[in-house]
Predict the structure.
Amino acid sequence: MGRLTGGDPSLLRRINSAVVLHTLRDAGSLTLTDITRITSLSRPTVEGVVEGLIETGLVAESAPEETRKQGRPARRFRFRAEAGHLLGIEIGAHRVAAMVAGLDGGIIGAGSREVAQKADADERLARVRDVADEVLGRAGVAHSSLRAVGVGSPGIVEADGTVRLGTALPQWTGLALGERLRRSFSCPVLVENDANAAAVAEQWKGAATDSDDIVFVLAGLSPGAGALIGGRLHRGFGGAAGEIGALHLLGRGVTPERLLSTTDEPLHPLDEQAVARVFAEARRGDARAQEAVERFILRLVHDVAALVLALDPELVVIGGWAAGLDGVLDPLRDELARYCLRPPRVALSLLGEAAVATGALRLAIDHVEEQLFAVEGPVTARR
């Protein structure tokens, strides 16, 4: 399509279509009179736009509402959320998960599968495809209906979906993750760091719906963080913003294996179950376990404080498996109040283990909305 100019009537038609489509998506079933009132467009303009959107498959005439008035009821129109679908995927060390939604963002299916932490890249991606097929099948959604797929993955992720550095999963560094998954889905695949995706999710449906400046901490053995500044995801110049798990390399030297050890030897194996046992021993009064927990929380506080001092967020949301351990939140609040010039609010994630997949889904929605509500290029639901 050629470049549109201010005097090009096709630009005005495109703007009007986006306005009407957005109105129907947000408001539900409306009459032409309703749309005219909400958009301030003329009745003939609205009629023409609606007929055009019906041809694209994005709008349909809905059943008229019952009325006591005599005469023919007014025609009503609705946004066809079923005209396309979106998929959000989480790839983690111990599980993969997926959720599917219509074009309105309404979730219609979700599922997960366990995967071995030592699984290689091929096995992990095969498990991703399996859980995606399972979720789509249960929801009755064909692969051909997918308009975009969002993916949340550990690691530093390039714009094209390549994992530049990913130490949490075997064979993940250098993996062309976006390219591999595009072969399976035949639609745009957007890959994002898992903590970044979770930050987006918490603002969309979680603990940060009323905040535009937030830090989400994916708390675990090696914590990561995602940040929204002014409501926009902050990735940094090379996508490495929020990698606070590397702070122990900058002169803080104690590894998680030693931080959480209750003996003179490093904790081995270092996994979620082993750490949960240390926290349980601390609650029972074991002195060495209590010292280990205090070291773990102190390191988390220092890592989070570094981001808080740099970004001055309104809210810090704690997620990840460590957020479910008793005794994490209150010490974190207390210590941030000591270290930070303006302590932020601190809250636990409301989405829990669904945060990463939910954020990945939101990224897919954003991608499609840029197309649906843009002022250049054709509006269409048909591929």
Summary: The radius of gyration is 24 Å. The chain has three domains: 9-79, 84-200+356-372, 209-349.
